[in-house]
Amino acid sequence: MSEALANLLNETRQFPPPAELAANANVTAVAYEEAAGDRLAFWERQAGRLAWAQPWEQVLDWSNAPFAKWFTGGRLNVAYNCLDRHVEAGLGDKVAIHWEGEPGDTRTVTYADLHRLTCQAANALTELGVTAGDRVAIYLPMIPEAAVAMLACARIGATHSVVFGGFSADALTNRIQDASAKVVITADGGFRRGKPSALKPTVDEAVANCPSVEHVLVVRRTGEEVAWSAKDHWWHETVETASPEHEAQAFDAEHPLFILYTSGTTARPKGILHTTGGYLTQASYTTHAVFDLKPETDVYWCTADIGWVTGHSYIVYGPLSNGATQVMYEGTPDTPHKGRFWEVVDKYKVTILYTAPTLIRTMMKWGEDIPAGYDLSSLRLLGSVGEPINPEAWIWYRQHVGRGELPVVDTWWQTETGAIMISPLPGVTEAKPGSAMGPLPGIVADVVDDQGQSVPNGGGGYLVLTEPWPSMLRTIWGDDDRFLETYWSRFGAGANLGDEWVYFAGDGAKKDDDGHIWLLGRVDDVMLVSGHNISTTEVESALVSHPSVAEAAVVGATDPTTGQAIVAFAIPRGSAETSGEQGEQLIAELRNHVAKALGPIAKPRQIMLVPELPKTRSGKIMRRLLRDVAENRSLGDVTTLQDSSVMDLISSGMSGGK
Ligand code: 6R9
C-alpha cells in the first residue's frame, strides 16, 4: 500500500459504547479472553446455546482439511431450534414476524403461527415426495412464506437453494440445474415499486428447461393471473390444508442445510454449501453477540432480502433461533415515499436496525430531513453489512439515524463465511468509523502480503482467516477442486503455508497502528497507478467525505502514462449544482479534495457527476461496468445489474472531464 494513502488511517474519531449498553451487554470483553484461551471449548459452549437431540463427540474434525467437520456425531433439527423450543417454552403467542407488505398490508405472525405453517409445509413437501437430502429451490418475494419454506426444508432435511426474486429465468435455470432441484417454491409475484412484479412466468420459463423439477408450489400474493401446468400446486390448497402435526427429526451436524449461489460478476456462480450444527451455532451466537439481542424487549429489523446470505443468517436462522421479534418488509425504501424505512422503524418501534452502506448513502443523498421527520427514539443499535462503509456514511448513520449516540457495528463477512466474522462488539469496542475493527471471539483473521506473511500494524495486503470456524462453507456444491482452488490455494503451490491452512477471502485490507482492520474492497478492485496500489474504497471514502458528495464509485482505467488512472463517478448530495460552470468548479474542488486527503498520487484523472451508480441486486457497486464506461468500451454483461436503465442515465447524464 502506498504511504500517501496511509491517510484513511488518520481517521481518529473513536466512539466508546454507551455506558448503559456496556453495563448490560450480552457479551463482554471476557469472551475474547475465553476464546483465546481455548477456541474449541469456546465454540463448544456456544453450540450449547442450541438444543441438540444427541451431543457431539468431537468439536472439530480437521483431519481432512480444508474440508471441515464441526460437532461430529451431534444431531439436531434446525427448525426445532428456531420454532418448537420457543413454543414449548411458552412463547407461542410471542410475535416472530411483524410483516409489512409494500402496499401497506400487514401480517402479525407469532411463533405458534410460524411453527404451524412450517409443520404444514413440511408435511406438504413430504407428500410431494421430498425427502432428506433432496434439493428445493425457493424463488419468493419477501413474505413470511419465504421463511416458512426455508424452515420447512430444514425441518425435513431437504437442502434449500434460495434464488433472489430479482434474478432472470437464465440465472434461475442455472441454479436449479446445478443443484438438480426437485421442487420449486415460488409465488405469483410480489410488490415492488408500487406495482405487482410477476415471478411465476420466470419460473415457468426456467422449469421448461429443468427436467429435475417434479413440482412447483405457488403462493398467491398479488392475485394476478398465472399460467398453470400439471406440475403446479397452489400453496393455499396444498400447504394450508396439510396437517399441522409434524415431529421434527434430528439430522447429523454435517447434514447439508442450504446451498446459496454467490453472484459471481463474470464467472459461473458458485454454489456455497452450508451444513447444520456449526452454521446454526455461529449464526445464533453472532446474532446474540453482535446485535446484543434481548429477545424479550428488542424489535429487530434486517433490511436485506432473504435471497442473500444476510437474509439467511440474520432474518431467518440467527434471529429465530434466538426467539427474536422482528420486522420483515416486502418492498423498496422509496415506495410510496422516501421516508418509508423510518415510518416502519417508528411504527414497530424497531430497536436494532441492520442495513447496508448503499442504503445509508442513498438516505444521505435524499437528505437528513427525511429521517428527522420520524420518531426514531426506539432505536438502540445500528448495523451495517455488504460493503466497506465510508467513514462519512458511518458518521451520518450514527448522527441522523442514531441521534449521535448509538453504536454502529460494521460487520464483515461473506456468503462463504456463513456468519459475521469481523465486527465491533457493541458493549465492548470503541468503534472507529469505517473500520470493522477486529475478529469476533473465536475467530482468527489476519492481513498478509503476497507471500502470505502477516503484515505489521500500518501495513496492507490481503484479508485471510487462519483458523477454521463453525459456519464456514464446506465446499462448492459439486466442485471440490474449485473450492480448493478459489479459497485455499492463493499462497503457494501446496495450497497451504506449512501445515496451516489459510482461507483467502478475496478482500484487500489493512491494519492501522492499533492493529484494527480496515476493509478495502475486493482485490480485483485495487488500482495500480504509477506503481502505487490504491484502493477504490479509499478514494471513494475521500470523495464521500466532501459535503457535496453522497456516493462515489472509483475505477482504474488504462492510461498510457500511469498504467492505470483513477476515474471517479460521484453522485452529488441533495441540492449541489452539477451543470455548467458550477459543475466544473465542483469537479475541480473534488479532485483537489482527494489529493489533499490521500496525497497527489490519488488525485482522480477524471470525475464524472452522475445521477446514479450501477449496482448488483444486492446493492454492491458494479465497478466492472464503470470501467467499460471509463475506457469507452461497450458494456459487458449487465444481467446482474439491479436497474439496467442506470447505465443509460450515466452515459447520457455525465458531466465532467479532466
Ligand atoms: C454478507 C455479504 C461478501 C463481500 C466481502 C466484502 C464485502 C461485506 C463488508 C464488506 C467491507 C464490510 N463486504 N461486508 N466489505 N466491510 N462490513 O455481504 O456477503 O454477498 O457474499 O459479499 O462483501 O467484499 O467479500 P456476500
From TrEMBL:
Example GO biological process:
acetyl-CoA biosynthetic process from acetate
Q: A GO molecular function for this record?
A: ATP binding
| Keyword presence, ATP-binding | yes
Residues annotated as binding Mg(2+) are: 544, 546, 549
Residues where ATP binds: 386-388, 410-415, 507, 522
SUPFAM superfamilies registered for this protein in UniProt: Acetyl-CoA synthetase-like
The record's listing under InterPro entries reads: Ac_CoA_lig, ACAS_N, AMP-bd_C, AMP-bd_C_sf, AMP-dep_synth/lig_dom, ANL_N_sf
Task: Specify the AMP-binding enzyme C-terminal domain's residue ranges.
Answer: 538-620
Keywords from the UniProt entry: Acetylation, ATP-binding, Ligase, Magnesium, Metal-binding, Nucleotide-binding
Listed binding positions for CoA are: 192-195, 310, 530
- Domain Acetyl-coenzyme A synthetase N-terminal positions: 31-82
Cofactor(s), names only, from the UniProt record? Mg(2+)
Q: Which residues form the AMP-dependent synthetase/ligase domain?
A: 90-469
Query: What is the recorded post-translational modification?
Result: Acetylated. Deacetylation by the SIR2-homolog deacetylase activates the enzyme.
Q: Which domain of life is it from?
A: Bacteria
Q: What does this protein do?
A: Catalyzes the conversion of acetate into acetyl-CoA (AcCoA), an essential intermediate at the junction of anabolic and catabolic pathways. AcsA undergoes a two-step reaction. In the first half reaction, AcsA combines acetate with ATP to form acetyl-adenylate (AcAMP) intermediate. In the second half reaction, it can then transfer the acetyl group from AcAMP to the sulfhydryl group of CoA, forming the product AcCoA.
- Give the family per the record: Belongs to the ATP-dependent AMP-binding enzyme family.
HAMAP family the record matches: Ac_CoA_synth (MF_01123)
- The protein depicted here goes by the name Acetyl-coenzyme A synthetase
Gene (UniProt):
acsA
